[in-house]
Amino acid sequence: MPFDLIRDKGREGRRGYTLPKPDVETKELSTILPKAALREEKPRLAEVDEPTVIRHYTNLSRENEGIDTTFYPLGSCTMKHNPRANEAAAVVPGFAGLHPLQPEDQAQGALRIMLELQGFLAEVSGLPHVSLQPLAGAQGELTSILMVKKFFEDTGDDGRTTVLVPSTAHGTNPATASMAGFESKEVGLDEHGCVDVEELREMVDESTAALMITNPNTCGVYERNIEEIAEVLHEAGAFLYMDGANMNANMGRMRPAEADVDVMHFNLHKTFSTPHGGGGPGCGAIACSEALAPFLPDPVVKKEGDEYRFVRPDKSIGRVAGFHGNFGQMLRAWNYIRMHGPELRDVTDMAVLNANYVRAQLRGTYRIPYDELCKHEVVVQPPKGKKALDIAKGLIDYGYHPPTIYFPLVVKEAMLIEPTETESKETLDDFIGTMLELAETSQENLEEAPTEAPTRRLDETRAARQLKARW
Fold first, then answer.
1. Of 119, 395, 460, 464, which has the maximum CB count within 10 A?
2. pLDDT, tens digit (0-9, with 9 covering 90-100), for 106-145
3. Contact 293, 316 (CB under 8 A)
4. For the residues 442-452, what does the mean pLDDT come to?
């Protein structure tokens, strides 16, 4: 159903509010601001009443696909259910009403939550030092590599110019290396979809600062040689950074520190169920070893006597975000971990079970490039003659959000499916049945999909060539 812009629904002078009369002297803007700062024309804002605003945005929201409306198997994104108990914790007035500039002695409860969450993440990862400040996974990556860079600067080792990145990496990994001032070099895979250790040995030298590895990787495969990989790096004086985007497959079963990982980031907005639709908000907390702890962002939370305090690490890289990070997300993640306790491992077990169930049921119809025990997600390819894009568009007509397609880049026509632990067998069976039906649908019909969605398939070539970036 097409919608008018809200601006076009208004009438001049219409308002949805009434402001109280000011209790101070009023002045014309022209007497306060310089002429250059004053508008010559009114801004093109919607002039509408409150019912129009509510109906407009409510109707728009009904056109969205989201975790609250449908199964959302977006690979490498962990679109799990967001428990409402987390939301209840986040709106407790004493937390929701805090101001980031409030003195520490007036925010002791919040600081206690942050310190406890630091401890929880240290326990999950095995790495003793944690910062909650980064606002997203990509920023957690960048923070980690900036800490590695600061370490080498502090030791006077100016020859570390390279960061190695596997070919299965998230695109943010090489981007992080570049932004931190390193050259990124790609490491290939072995027949299992894991880092080729022998190729890695040949690449690691005195110029290597770190390897950025995702485990499990974006093929859904556990990096079975991760301890050997760590040994290769450490022998050369380099660090092993772990992209923790896929920690939903590790909690309670694999502690990165026990595989000799030096630093990693978490996605609280993925692994610990906090909302992350629409690009945020997020929290990319990081955990690190003793060697990198002095370089953590400023501040971290510590307890001094009976009080909680913000503390600047000795050789901190400084702030990477305003104030103290995304506290609302921290609070939700804290609540999620407290609710599960030691049973966090059950989250991992069910996520792995669900992904392997999907893999087993699609086998034989869909091609599976790494057909062995997967972790929390599985990558498949459509039957020969069909395209991942067409299958994805077809899923929309059945009410499903499509999985990630054409990623990881090492798999042609990839469809990366991550069912998460929160979906029932009945939901998975319905999704699997739809996937099998689409595999049998004629190519002609698939190319027309979606036919039941609010908008039909876009002409992507035309959109790219005739881009309209503003209106």
1. 395
2. 999 999 999 999 999 999 999 999 999 999 999 999 999 9
3. no
4. 93
Report yes or no on 468 lying in a domain: no
**With contact defined as beta carbons under 8 Å apart, do 174 and 182 qualify?**
no
Contact in structure between 205 and 170 (CB atoms under 8 Å)? no
Looking at the chain, the number of H-run helices and the number of E-run strands are: 15, 12
Q: Is residue 423 part of a domain?
A: yes
Kindly tell me the burial class for residue 365, based on how many C-beta atoms sit within 10 Å of its own C-beta (0-12, 13-18, 19 or more). Answer: middle
Out of 44-48, 196-200, 249-253, least confident range: 44-48
Q: The domain containing residue 34 runs over which residues?
A: 6-53
Q: 391 near 382, Cβ under 8 Å?
A: yes
Is residue 463 pLDDT above 90, yes or no? Answer: no
| Residue 67, domain member (yes or no) | no
- 182 and 272 both lie in a single domain: yes
328-331: Cβ within 8 A, 24+ apart: 328/90, 328/96, 328/281, 329/268, 329/269, 329/274, 329/281, 329/282, 329/283, 330/113, 330/114, 330/117, 330/132, 330/268, 330/283, 330/285, 331/86, 331/89, 331/90, 331/95, 331/113
Could you tell me if 420 and 248 are in contact, meaning their C-beta atoms sit under 8 angstroms apart? yes
Residues 377 and 316 in one domain: no
Q: In angstroms, how far is CA 455 from the centroid of its own chain?
A: 27
Provide the terminal-to-terminal Cα distance of the chain, rounded to the nearest Å: 20
The verdict on 235 and 266 lying in the same domain is yes
Q: Is the peptide bond before 216 cis (omega within 30 degrees of 0)?
A: yes
Residue 46 burial (10 A CB sphere; 0-12, 13-18, 19+): middle
What residues are paired with 265 via a beta bridge?
A: 243, 286
Give the H/E segment covering residue 236: none
Question: Domain holding 117: CATH number?
Answer: 3.40.640.10
Dist. CA 124–CA 256, nearest whole Å: 8
Residues 103 and 40 in one domain: no
- Residues 328, 358 within the same domain: no
Per DSSP, 398 falls in state: T
Specify the number of domains making up the chain: 3
Residue 163 pairs with which residues in a beta bridge? 184, 210
Give the 3-state secondary structure of residue 190. coil
Asked if residue 451 lies in contact with residue 426, where contact means CB atoms within 8 angstroms, the answer is no
Report if residue 76 sits inside a domain. no
Write down the pTM of the prediction. 0.90
